[in-house]
Amino acid sequence: MHLISFRPIFLHRLKQQLWTIKPCWRTLTDTCTSQEPFKIEEEDSIPSISVINDSLMHSIQSCSSLSTLFPLVRANLPQHRAHHIAAALLRACNIVRSCAYFHPINMEIYRKNLLDHPMFNLLCHLCEHRLLELNFEDHVNIMSSLVKLDIRMSSSESPFLRHLFTELAQTEYIEKFDLNLLNRFLIALVKKSNRHLLLPLYKPLLERFRQLLIQIGPSHTPATLKCTIGIMHLLGMAVPITNTQSDDTQAQKIAPIAGPDTFVRLLTLGGMFPEQMKRWIPHAFLSWTQNLHRILWFDLYLILSSAKRHFRRLNELFDLAVTRCITEFDQNHVLVDHDVLYMTCALYRYSKIKLKLRLNKRLHKCLDNFDPHEICLLYQHVNPDTCNDWDLLARIHQKLKQISLSSEEYEGDFWPMLTILTEHINKNIDYYTSEPAGADFIMYLRAEIERSKSRSNETWFIRDQHLAILTFYLKYALSGTAIPNNLMINADAIISQAGLKDTGTLLAGYYNAASLLSPDAANMTFQRQIEQIHRMLVRHKTEHLSNISIYPFSHLVNFLSHITSSRYNIDTPLLEPFYERLNSFDNQTSLSLRDVNNLSLLFSHSARLYPSLLDSMCSTLIDTQSTSLKLIATYFRCLYRVNYKPEQINDLCSLARHLYQNKDEIRSIDMLWIATANAGLFNQIDEDLLNDIFSLSFLDSVDQVSLKKNVLQLGQPLFRLNQIVCIDHPQLNIPWFNDRFGLEVALPEMRRHWLLRHTTFDHIESNLATILGGKEYLQTHTLSPYFHEIDFECILRLDNHQPVQCDQFNTMKNITRDKKLEIPEGCERVAIQLTTPNHYCHNTTHFVGSVEVSFRHLKKLGYRLVILPYYELSVIESSAARFRYLNNKLFKNNQ
């Protein structure tokens, strides 16, 4: 990232409309060029068209807005030569890119306005007819500028760009590319949605790259070395893989003899060529397993970091790497410091405690030999979320203090380090408030930021950095310390530019800060600041609602999934328009498996019922060949949560049974959720799955996990499944064995919940006692024989509806005995359930799955169920009306 110098009034000028800038105002580009040259990214710095000393060219390159550029072009059309037209095209693209960088929310508007502008179309038309007058370098410059505006090389969107590419793709042009042009040509294709056009050109491009490397030889400069690395990466991402059978045969021949590092970069292809990767991955995996001892730990780290995204056999490869690591430790292999570093980065986060202890011991020995760059990389994997060695963490944080904004050498590592704090560390934030080393590190970072903001040259942070700083202050609010005023001054302008991801991290930071404040000891200034930030977020996102249509569907899903799955319960009106967009889902929108996974997690957390979207998710799982049993389990958990049966659920259940019989990879928790949804919601029985779950070996593994981790993780799903099979499917003859869990875990959890009674509950209890003739006829907070929670219970005679004292029939006294409900002769047991909004899917009267199953079980056990919906009680104004309502429910409505 680069720091940009500008003054506070600059943020005000950013609000001007790009297309209607008045002459008396200095434009965006004027402001930037008046100080240091402005660069968006290193790869964006485009060489100018061949320099010609004429006044028209100078005027074109001096234009700072389209409102001055296009009139200049129109007024001088007769004088334009090819290089003038090309320069005008480049200038127009750069102006739009500069403004869109500071207002990414308006990128689509800027792009559309440029494409629809008649002068831009005229420039493209003129340039197309004068291509032969331009050299191949000018072609690359123009193509790169247009592609970076996200213009596709399709005949429908930009015939000129496609024509330009066709001319440039000729072999005689490619043979003239130098390293810089080759690098930028590849960036324009591979990094955008035009990469399919690169496949036919792969061999001539690769041959030209080989020739350039031979010409340069050992005399590399920093610029040529940077281009070389970039080209290697880009060409690796664009490996041409066709659909012919010969490729499979060729791959099988190559894999055994290929070097161990041949397939290191292969996994970066996963997102681009998913179908072809299915054939190549087995060959790559064979090469890795056979040559694992020869692969450098750095390359192994690259493989595993890519595999987390694209490689389903990660666990097997990870286990092999762990075995190699343990072997090298046991045999006392000589490991250089870099081996220890990349070994740790590859394995630490997901390794077991014994291996972590050995890695910690090695890190203690070589930590002082790492420079701050390497410490920053290590910090991504060894941090309070993953490491319990406080001494090691203290040393790492002490070394991280060498990374300073005032240090030119390590300034670039400051922002990745801040990103780790704001985005990656979520489980153990308390380390930075309770541990002296952590709190001292946070204070050091604050001092660095505030020192940079108070320098005499008024150093200001660009948008991404400013947003990261705001999130940092919100997330690590030590004793409610106020955010410095010089950061809050520009908060409104910066938040107005926040994208979906930025909004999500800021919201998570806001709710963290709000949860830490206590009314009696809160810093009032800080409390006022965080509320101000929240209002800014709501206001600006409300203003941007008209642009929600420009967000890709997958981006909306990722954003909402990130927000609702954070450790804080985020529920704000700000999110409703995004959910409305999901609810208006267009069946023509295609869903990926990643979308299905994120939507399943989203609906599980938020209890949102969108039937059309759930049906489409089901279709995607059925129609996609690479669907895994783990993903089906996540989807089933979502369906159970929202209590919904898709139209094609029978087909999906058949697929799940098929995958399970074929031993598809699955976790214990996934097995429980699949069985629970099948038996409890879909009324389908997978006997093989149930036999495996209720086997002694599986139950013993559940006990072992419960002893080591949270007892609710597997114990509670198994408890609910046991209820379902005993009550809904008694023909299976599966015994009830969860009394101990019910008494030691479920019942104490219910009692903690009962302490939070609301006033409506007390009013209902009082009215029911009056209706029945006394409190001795009413029980509150009771349980069914299978530990179902009941709010109120009474016993009524069937003939005259008179109440019966129910102390002797209290289930709580003998809940571990016979599971048959005891009902006095000639009487009925009435279970009265008071619902809350949590009993229903969001903003509906549709019960969530757990409530639906619980109420069904109470009826099957023999209770007469009386439901008191909260939305009916909330509209009753008087006590007399509530009394009549409860009397009618109890005696007249037999549900």
TrEMBL record:
Highest taxon listed in the record's lineage: Eukaryota
A molecular-function term among this protein's GO annotations: RNA binding
Location of the RAP domain: 830-888
GO biological process assignments: mitochondrial RNA processing; regulation of mitochondrial mRNA stability
PROSITE patterns found in the cross-reference section: RAP
GO cellular component: mitochondrial matrix; ribonucleoprotein granule
Pfam families: FAST_2, RAP
Name assigned to this protein: RAP domain-containing protein
